Fold this sequence. Notes:
The protein is α/β, with parallel strands linked by helices.
Amino acid sequence: MAAVKNARILVVDDESDVLFAIKMLLKTEVKQVVTEKNPENLLPLLDKERFDAIFLDMNFKSALNTGNEGIFWLKKILAKDPEATVVLITAYGDVELAVRSLKEGAFDFIVKPWHNDKLIETLHNALEARQQKAKGGKAAAAPAKAGAGAILGESEAIKDILYKIEKIAPTEANVLILGENGTGKELVAQALHQKSFRAGKPFVSVDIAALTDSLFESELFGYKKGAFTDAKEDRTGRFEAANGGTLFLDEIGNISPAMQAKLLTVLQNRQVIPLGSNTPVPVDIRLISATNEPIYDLAARNQFRKDLIYRINTVEITLPPLRERHGDVELLARHFAAHYAAKNHKPVPTFAEATLRKLNQHSWPGNIRELQHAVERAIIMAEGDVLQPQDFSFSKMEMPAAQDATAVAMPAVSLPLHEIERETIRRVIEKNKGNISRSAKELGLTRTALYRRLNKHDI
């Protein structure tokens, strides 16, 4: 605590309200809080004074105006003082960029509007890490907790997701989860709820794809007795059932334009009108949506309302397919093997090396769900306690070539694998005229994963 009380903190942000709020919050926590609106004054200030931690905004109203200002100034700070402890301040929409900043040397980031206790906790962690580093110990970085929800994985791709869950969960932001079938979108939604301030309240899940237009309103908004022929009694809709908690709308990309309009009205007004009633019912929910549909392509074709997208994706999380989660197949396979062995009253099996090679070489078009089913079949059908390659067979539905998962043709010439990957990435970026978001989407990668490959291949 002494290290915190004696700390000197610098806050750099071009919004006076942000500077004032942090200064008031931290003035009783630390020895001194220095504020600065103009990032151009940052380096001269660091020449004259020493700070134990720096809170740095990611976007300034400057000539740069690219969304990368925070990383630009972060690099400048670390070039001057490689031991500087920097915490980025970011808005919801820049979470992807903030995760990238961790790779560039930032200690952590906070999402605004923040919760005061979370900001103070982040400051304490940063100062503790700096103190440990000064003593020659290992700095305590702020990685995601590996057990978020029931999400398993040790790959860089899944660590990015876990970190986002930690940061986004305590906010009230609506979240849109994108990803292929079987990537674990509902698990992420549950993890966001469990780590939010609504954790003690209901988590209500709705499979939108299973609702016809005639059922949509009655299921989501409820109805009064006599509203239609089979309405024998009042029924509470899913919005009301989730009041105070989280509503998860799965496969939201499948709803019709007419139902999109009704959903938008509810989200704008924060109230529902049950069928057969004229009385609005206020609802307080945090909305999490998910889809495997190309929702932005649907919007471009006027099949999905753009104003509804703005409502549902204050923050967006794109889940990586299993083929991009390098190293996680074996971990997940062992987890499912233990689960299904216990369920089927069998000893927990081991995996032959040849079996692990076969699993790692498969493209897993059905993602985690396909792996789960494959392991369950193997547990049931295996003759011994060691799972062999022949215990795993994939149907034709599960056998698309890996290249089908990408939207570009691979070079026809025979090249080493890393050269093929480099050439494919280069072609896609050229095709999209340097647009990283579109290129990542076409390659089936997150932006963070694409940035890693750009660095890896020096593109």
